[in-house]
Amino acid sequence: MRAVESREVRHLVGRLNRGDRLPRDLLAVAEKFGVKAGRVHAIGGVTTLAVTEFDVEAQTYREPLRRAGMTEVLGLAGNLSRRDGALFGHLHISACYEENGATKMLAGHLVEAEVFVCEFHIVAYDDVELIREFDPSTGLALWNLPDKE
Amino acid sequence: MRAVESREVRHLVGRLNRGDRLPRDLLAVAEKFGVKAGRVHAIGGVTTLAVTEFDVEAQTYREPLRRAGMTEVLGLAGNLSRRDGALFGHLHISACYEENGATKMLAGHLVEAEVFVCEFHIVAYDDVELIREFDPSTGLALWNLPDKE
Amino acid sequence: MRAVESREVRHLVGRLNRGDRLPRDLLAVAEKFGVKAGRVHAIGGVTTLAVTEFDVEAQTYREPLRRAGMTEVLGLAGNLSRRDGALFGHLHISACYEENGATKMLAGHLVEAEVFVCEFHIVAYDDVELIREFDPSTGLALWNLPDKE
What we know:
The structure is a homotrimer.
Chain A: E1 2-6, E2 9-16, E3 21-22, H1 24-32, E4 38-52, E5 54-55, E6 60-61, E7 65-83, E8 86-99, E9 102-125, E10 131-135, E11 140-143
Parallel strand pairs in A: 7-10
Antiparallel strand pairs in A: 2-9, 3-9, 4-7, 4-9, 5-6, 7-8, 8-9, 10-11
């Protein structure tokens, strides 16, 4: 268990413009407001989408699944922290479109997307430092928080 | 990029009753607590559900997909703001049920649902005004926030 | 409608370790920080997962669907409250993996999972008491909040 409590929190709300890129332009919002750590949740729709998943054995992300065409974003969720000195968004996306009268999903770790509409909320943790460092147990860059167990 | 910071935030938590209607009765909670803008997240289950998706070319929502029968709500997520002078909920729903030993999804823009159980959280932004106006780039009613790019 | 407003809120952020168990080790974090009521959202990945859904007629949860192997967690969402004198997590999980070049979902009410990575946010409501009691209208243990309708 590795956790910290944030007591200085700011709440941002807004939207991206049609044609904006994810995650780039969401990170630009966070940068503009001086966010160093936080959480993100958004809904909306995208006109292109690429998602991936982590391959545990290869310790790398797989070749993305891609789709062009309007796709509803049920949830774009994750967090903001620092990696290699820059603001980094770890975002998972749950998206869907109708096909043959049923819901078809396209979901996973967000690689990139083009925004149709994106209504977002960011909770900034202004008193918390979340730094990603290589974690040998997973092969991922994870928060270097002290283990409290 | 169009975003604002809210510094006066309230947190509501509660549940709807069996037989309540979504989004109507969730909006009634928000009205009762004087919420003018905010975000919503809920989990639970519904006994009827109708979802849709936006058709970009037709600039309108499609004929809803409907289901009757218990459906688990993985996430009912979105926001509260003003449209045409009234409180408006823009809510996407991610729901599922088991079929032949596998997860079957029904998801999209929430049209309506009948509640079995709905445990919700509302974060009210009391110092922020979010007004939806027609946006010609999408054909949707979007928040009239100034563009900061 | 049964809702309360929390004015004493704390924000926790952190991650679980590889091999930790859900929901057990997430509840352990909450216990360690003295959380009595709150909400939860997390993303990440799990190496085993069991989900279920509520059977309204039988008034019980079904036999779980299970999967072993890396599964992306799009959203682990829900709440913390008291049931039978102990901290209880009501958590729904939306998870996926790639199969034949498409997204395959495994989702529902979380039974248990083994963590690969879990980056979580907890909003603690320190001034709110949420106690689950048997609700005859659903057969579930629901929050005993006064009805304000």
